[in-house]
Design a protein that fits this description.
The chain is an alpha+beta fold and 494 residues long. Helices cover 31% and strands 13% of the residues.
């Protein structure tokens, strides 16, 4: 039955695909969507830039909005001197759009969440209807708490195992790129638990929060893994919710065969929406930037391949797993407080905001705002085998899962695990045991267990981008000298 459904759906999609129709008729049927989403991207980036990152309007136009100068967007609305946008500092909100730039999209900062994008028919008057998270932080000044639980970072004596000149060269390699499109904001290197190098670009400091983009996926996987470890979720159980559209024969829906493992391995077999130039036209773009429900959008795709057989990077696959997490937690309150209580507060990630859509469903596929030190703590949790202050927060078995290649990548280089990126088979210049988060605009947390290192690089790259996380790994490791303590646990270069 499933094979027949898949065959029929594939045949239908081959004839009516929006992408094919657009190419054949040379007409952009999605022009309005593109314009609306462009305005939404600017609304979210500008709102968060001003009220989450606490940047100036000039900095926002110069760096955050440089992303909108790529061909897919064609530019941003207005400039530093004004245009069809409105900034309401009293409301901590912005509106983008107008007669010459298209549908007006609003975004507003909400306590504990960051900026929430609003539906096209919503205005500043609707801000109070948006979710927020009023959950107090630990009543201790982070600057008085020693690293890694806090931000009191000691001045370390030079390590015999670290070549300071080589480390500085790696830092210069990171910041001094040969293209302005690779815009490094920060670099942190943690070696044997200590910060041995920390550097920020002008206008950025250790408190500056910027968007993680898809590095959020690795945070989502961690939160889900905690529930799997407790037996509240299972990798090989179906996701366990009803799909859309709501049909009478729900029990016969072939999508019921999709498991949590499939979703985390990016191999659900569901129809791709974020590929072929459509990421900022439909699909998750509507949830990220136009106020649509991330939950409903994720459940609306038809299955076109046997689950587990084909790797396809889709934001909605992550959000399906997050929805399963929400259901496992059992209540809205438990779900909304879970990231803070289970992970962020435990390891001192005080500067991290897990953002949500206007229905308070976490957009844990992309929209997390945090700083470099919090991401260094996150990487250190993995480097320490999932323990923090003596507590096992995530199991070694879960770390094994996320760092094991997804079966569907076997014929393509085994480069992806469970919402973490792995060293591809064809790389021979970095340790095979390294693994990394990866987010748009150059957001990387790289863990190298064999060398006891975590590397964090934050960027606001744009246009061609192209900053390579494993090239960075190679450069940093040039500064680490072999020593007897690590020799027994060193994974050889491939």
């Amino acid at each position: 039955m499933l094979r027949f459904v898949l065959t029929a759906q594939l045949a239908l999609l081959a004839t009516i695909s929006p992408v094919n129709a657009q190419q054949e008729e040379n007409f952009d049927y999605f022009a309005t969507n593109r314009q609306m989403i462009r305005n939404g991207v600017q609304a979210v980036l500008m709102c968060n830039g001003l009220f989450t990152s606490h940047r100036t309007l000039e900095q926002v136009f110069d760096q955050e909005l440089a992303y909108l100068t790529s061909d897919r967007f064609g530019g941003y609305v207005g400039n530093i001197d004004g245009g069809e946008y409105e900034v309401r500092t009293d409301l901590q909100a912005v509106a983008i759009g107008g007669p010459n730039s298209g549908i007006v999209i609003h975004a507003a900062f909400r306590k504990g969440i960051g900026c929430v994008v609003m539906a096209p028919d919503m205005t500043f008057d609707d801000i109070d209807s948006l979710p927020e998270l009023d959950l107090p932080y630990v009543d201790r000044d982070a600057n008085t708490v020693p690293w890694p639980n806090g931000d009191l970072v000691p001045t370390l004596a030079p390590s015999l195992n670290v070549d300071a000149n080589a480390l500085q060269a790696a830092s210069d390699w990171t910041f001094d790129r040969d293209t302005p499109e690779q815009d490094t904001l920060s670099l942190i290197v943690v070696y044997q638990g200590d910060i041995i190098h920390e550097r920020y670009a002008p206008g950025i400091n250790e408190q500056t929060r910027t968007r993680t983009w898809s590095t959020a996926k690795s945070i989502a996987s961690t939160l889900i893994g905690m529930l799997v470890d407790k037996g509240q979720m299972s990798l090989d159980d179906p996701l366990g919710f009803e799909w859309l559209p709501d049909i009478r024969t729900h029990e016969e829906d072939p999508r019921n065969e999709i498991t949590l493992r499939h979703a985390l391995n990016m191999s659900t077999g569901l129809y791709p929406l974020d590929n072929q130039g459509m990421e900022y036209v439909t699909g998750s773009g509507m949830s990220y930037w136009a106020g649509a429900s991330s939950v409903n959008g994720a459940r609306q795709r038809a299955v076109v391949r046997e689950p587990g057989t084909y790797w396809d990077y889709e934001n909605y696959d992550t959000l399906l797993a997050v929805l399963a997490m929400k259901n496992a937690l059992g209540s809205d309150t438990a779900y909304q407080e879970y990231p803070r209580r289970a992970l962020l507060d435990k390891i001192g990630m005080r500067n991290t905001l897990i953002s949500a859509d206007r229905f308070h469903d976490f957009i844990l596929s992309s929209q997390v705002y945090t700083n470099a030190r919090d991401l260094a703590r996150f990487g250190l949790l993995y480097l320490q085998g999932g323990t923090w202050n003596g507590e096992q927060l995530i199991s070694k078995e879960w770390i094994d899962f996320v760092t094991t290649p997804a079966p569907a990548t076997a014929d393509r280089g085994q480069f992806y695990g469970g919402q973490w990126w792995l060293v591809p088979d064809d790389r021979t210049d970095v340790p095979a045991d390294a693994y990394s988060t990866a987010g748009n605009r150059g957001q990387y947390v790289i863990v190298v267990p064999s060398h006891d290192i975590v590397i964090v690089r934050r960027g606001l790259d744009y246009k061609g981008q192209g900053f390579d996380n494993f090239d960075l790994t190679r450069e940093v490791l040039k500064a680490i000298k072999p020593n007897e303590g690590l020799a027994a646990n060193t994974s050889p270069l491939r």
